[in-house]
Each structure stands twice: as C-alpha cells, then as structure tokens.
Automatic annotation (TrEMBL), chain A:
Lineage: Archaea, Methanobacteriati, Methanobacteriota, Stenosarchaea group, Halobacteria
Protein's UniProt keywords contain Transmembrane helix: yes
Entry similarity comment: Belongs to the BioY family.
Record Gene3D superfamilies: 1.10.1760.20
Name by which UniProt lists this protein: Biotin transport system substrate-specific component
From TrEMBL, chain B:
Keyword Iron recorded: no
Compartments where located: Membrane
Keywords for this protein: Membrane, Transmembrane, Transmembrane helix
Chain segments annotated as transmembrane: 31-54, 66-83, 95-113, 133-151, 213-233
Cellular component terms (Gene Ontology): plasma membrane
Name under which the protein is recorded: Biotin transport system permease protein
Membrane topology type: Multi-pass membrane protein
Length: 206, 234
C-alpha cells in the first residue's frame, strides 16, 4: 500500500507499507552457515601448501568442498558451493590466486573443477548422511567417509579433466596428464586431514 | 594487485549489470566458435576496447597469472607425441589458439569486475532469478563478499600462530588439519552470531534493492550480445 502525505494540495511525501515476509530462524542460520562456508572455501584459495612433485602449490579448496557436504549436508553444502561460484563470477576474489569474474567459469582451463564443486559437495553429503536428514558426523564410519570423499574426488577430476580438454583443445589423456596426475596425491592428504578433523572433538559446532 | 571494483564514471560503469553479464556470455560463445587466427584478431580488438571502456588495461589481467602455467604448457603437451615426428606443430598451434582465447574471455570478465559494484550485481541476481531462490542466492553472494576478508584474515593469523610454535616441521596433512579446523570453527562462530543477528533485525524475503534500469546504451549492448550468440551458434 502506498501512503501519500499531502500538504496544501501537494504530495510532500510518499511511503510504501508492504507486508514484511520474515525468514524463519532455522533458515536464517542455515543461510548464514552456507554463506560463511562459501567464504571459507574462497579464503582457502589463499592458503597454499608446497607439496612434493606438485608443480603448483596445493590449496585447501577441495577439502572445503568435502567438509561442506559432510558438515552442512547435501542440500546446504551444495547451496554453499553455488554461493561460492556465483560470488566469484560476480567479482569476489575467491578463485585460485585471488582471481574472479564470469570469464573464469566460461573459459579458464580449470573451469571444470569449479563447476563440479556444488555437485561434489552434494554427492559427498548425500553419501555420508544417506539422504537429506543430517546425521552426527562423529557417528559415521571411517569407511563411509573415505568412500564419499573418494567419490567426490572422482566427480571433481572427471569434470576438471573434461573441462581442460575442451578449453585447451587437448585429448583426454593429455588433459589428464596436465591437470590431474600431479595433483591426485595431494587429494589423499586432504582426505586424511578431513578424517582427522571429523574424528577429533575440534569442531565445536558440528 | 587484486582485481576488484573501481569507482569511476566510464561507459561500462553506466551500463546495467545484466547487459554486461549477457555480453560476457555472447563474447565467450563467439570466442569458442571462432578460434581461428582471423577470428581472434577481431576478438582481441573487441576485448581490448571493452577493457579500455571500463578504465582497465593489461594490469587488470595480472590477477589471472595463476592460469598462465596451464596456458603456456598446454601447447607443449598437445604437440608432444610418442614416436615419429615427436612434436606435431599443427596440434601445438591449435592449442596455442585455444590458450590465447582464454586470455580474451578473461579480459572481458575483468572489465565487468572493474565496473560493477557488489550491490548492483546482487540486485541483478535477485531480479533475474525468480522467487526465494533468487533472494537466497542474492543474500548468500553478498555475505561471501562481506566475510571473505575476515575469514582470510582468520586463516592468516592461524598460520602465523602455527609457524610461531614450530608447526612448519609437521607433516602436510597435519598442518592442513590444523588450519582447516581453526577456519571452520571461526566460520561457524561467525555464522551463528550472524544468523541470530539477521533474525533479530527482521531478515525478510522481500528486502529493498537498489533500482536498476536499462538505458539506451544497454539496448545497444544487448543487441550486440545477442548478435554474438547468434553468430556463434549459426
């Protein structure tokens, strides 16, 4: 409804009163957690570890993808990584090396890895929680966790290698050689680190 | 130097974010369809003009330097063959063109990032994606922009603290665990405080957005974008 404030025949002020449709408390917390996790995955792009045999420093982004699925579940984990991609496309410096822009998702050699993140997070979450209802991560067996993260890794590298082959006009074996072989050992270290995080009592809010 | 929004009054700054986004898609489609020497010459001129109109220059591409190793190594990987003739120049040339194409699309993307404030991008999302999905996406993206510097700072102080305690000598997976644990705990603490604060301040599904309007210039950009898409597909 629009209220018009009239003084001596002239409209001096107009106010709009619309019903405010409030977001529920649970949705607000879930939304905040997903957004903060997306920002954390972006911040992980700035944390690099030198790794033996790897030509480029290894960042923790894939670890963030695994943990988004495990800690937020398949739905909000996938949403979190979608936030990450859209924010990056619109200019948040969250892609590797602090880069940003829609061009990264349209033409950069590593675009396949990025597009796979929401799918991989949802897959890891779906396997670990066996559906959309969240289970306590401490009650989940190590075999399930490792299996889910290996499945996530397969999805990420499948998308990544195909993307690199398309962008750089390479054959799939060439793209695998350039974009996957040297990085796979680091993924094993991230899976070990993820298990360590989930098995300790270090995560207060899980 | 990180690529980010720079306040200015260039032609690109006055455009609606939605036309700029569509233009990037059109440009990328044309770049994939015309990865020939002649096509790339034309597209180079377009990309340079677009970046110039946004007030940017070659320096704007510096934040994409991490893609360079991939772009430079790819032609070598493509050209190398096992057995005679050991190196195929035709394959290497094809991949060199593809590598160069990447730089052009990134230049156009840099022009968008330089010329578009976050709140306009957010308004573009919420006016394009319908219903609550659009609201969730808009809020989420705005929060990522807001909290990225804080979480980056959290992680940096954590690493410094680990290094100060001699943690550099620990195995890689242990260091990864320590950094990630601290990062997640900080992120969840911030998220829970934020969630409560949002509820307390009447966080609503129908917030007020800055106005966006298509001008005459947007009509031109939209027509060019659609033209590029048509040229790419046909």
């Amino acid at each position: 409804m629009i209220l018009k404030w009239v003084y001596r025949g002239a409209v001096v002020m107009e106010t709009r009163t619309e019903a405010v449709d409030l977001v529920g408390d649970d949705a607000a917390i879930n939304l905040a957690r997903a957004a903060l996790f997306a920002a954390l995955v972006g911040a992980f792009a700035y944390v690099s570890f030198p790794f033996p045999f790897s030509p480029a420093p290894v960042t923790l982004q894939v670890l963030g993808v695994f943990l988004a699925g495990i800690l937020l579940g398949p739905v909000w984990g996938g949403v979190a990584l979608s936030f990450y991609l859209v924010a990056g496309a619109l200019g948040a410096p969250v892609f590797s090396g602090g880069s940003a822009g829609l061009g990264t998702l349209l033409a950069e050699p590593t675009l396949g890895y990025l597009w796979s993140y929401p799918i991989a997070a949802a897959l890891v979450g779906g396997i670990v929680h066996r559906g959309t209802t969240l289970r306590n991560p401490r009650e989940i067996g190590v075999a399930t966790l490792v299996g889910a993260m290996v499945a996530g890794t397969v999805v990420i590298y499948t998308f990544g290698v195909i993307g690199m082959a398309v962008v750089l006009s390479l054959t799939l074996p060439e793209a695998f050689l350039q974009g996957a072989v040297v990085f796979l050992p680091a993924e094993a270290a991230k899976i070990v680190a993820a298990i360590g995080i989930l098995r300790s009592d270090a995560i207060a809010a899980a | 130097m990180t690529l980010s929004y720079v306040p200015d009054d260039t032609l690109a700054h006055r455009l609606d974010p939605r036309s700029k986004l569509l233009f990037q898609v059109g440009f990328a489609a044309a770049a994939y369809a015309y990865t020939t020497p002649r096509g790339l010459v034309v597209l180079t001129a377009v990309a340079a003009a677009v970046l110039g109109l946004a007030g940017g220059g070659p320096r704007s591409l510096w934040s994409y330097r991490f893609a360079l190793p991939f772009l430079l190594v790819a032609p070598l990987v493509a050209g190398a063959t096992l057995g005679d003739p050991w190196f195929r120049t035709d394959r290497a040339f094809e991949t060199s063109l593809a590598s160069y194409r990447v730089l052009l699309v990134l230049a156009v993307a840099a022009a968008y990032v330089r010329s578009t404030p976050v709140r306009d991008s957010r308004a573009a999302i919420q006016r394009t994606v319908p219903g609550r999905a659009g609201v969730v996406l808009g809020v989420g993206v705005a929060l990522v922009f807001r909290f990225l510097p804080l979480l980056t700072h959290d992680l940096r102080t954590t690493r410094e603290a680990i290094a100060a305690r001699g943690g550099d000598r620990l195995p890689v997976h242990v260091r990864m665990r320590l950094v990630a644990t601290a990062g997640i705990n900080r992120a969840f603490e911030r998220a829970d405080r934020l969630g409560v604060a949002l509820s307390a301040r009447c966080f609503a599904w129908n917030p007020t957005l800055p106005p966006l309007a298509f001008g005459r210039l947007d009509g031109v950009v939209l027509a060019v974008s659609v033209g590029l898409l048509v040229v790419a597909v046909v």
